[in-house]
Specification:
The structure is a single chain. With 167 residues, this protein is mainly alpha-helical. The protein contains 5 helices and 4 strands, in the order E-E-H-H-H-E-H-H-E. Strands 1-2 form a two-stranded antiparallel sheet. A two-stranded antiparallel ribbon has the order 3-4. Helix 1 runs antiparallel to helix 4. The termini are far apart.
Length: 167
């Protein structure tokens, strides 16, 4: 590795809430996935036609900051109440839609496309969070919450979609 001049910032490191970390660390990778998912949620919210979905996305986006904070600091921010909230939200949306009986193309509009990208990035964040959970860095509730979030986003896609394209 090349030496840096005095006072020059190391471009291979980044500052987090818990201090400076290598940019390729498991923690930074998970934080990046959470941030990326949140950005796609924001895009979906802008394209969303249903106010109820826009409000729900905003609640999720705000909670994503707590998720990122837990990953960054290792302090438990996501708890049983958060998991219960997302499970109850899932039950409410399941009452409003017909679940498909086969595979389908989920991207039928801008909002469903962005929600689907957010869903897949959340799944990646969940995989990264499992690694951190096994090392004792994050709690099981964070992993559960991300797991439930990907399913909730799937349901939100079905709710928002005006058409079904079956495979």
């Amino acid at each position: 590795m090349k030496d840096l001049r005095d006072g020059q910032k190391d471009p291979s490191k980044t500052k987090t809430l818990s201090g400076e970390l290598w940019k390729d660390s498991e923690i930074v990778e998970c934080i990046g996935c959470i941030d990326e998912a949140n950005a796609f949620l924001g895009l979906a919210r802008i394209f969303c036609k249903e106010e109820v979905l826009r409000d729900l996305i905003l609640k999720i986006q705000k909670k994503m900051f707590s998720v990122g904070c837990e990953v960054s600091m290792g302090e438990r921010k996501i708890d049983e109440k958060d998991v219960e909230w997302i499970e109850n939200t899932i039950k409410e949306i399941e009452k409003c839609i017909d679940l498909p009986k086969s595979f389908l193309i989920l991207e039928t509009s801008g909002e469903t496309a962005f929600l689907n990208v957010a869903r897949t990035v959340v799944r990646r964040a969940e995989r990264r969070a499992v690694t951190l959970y096994k090392k004792g860095i994050v709690g099981i509730h964070l992993v559960q919450w991300l797991n439930k979030l990907s399913y909730l986003l799937y349901l939100m896609i079905l709710f928002a979609s005006n058409e079904r394209i079956y495979v």
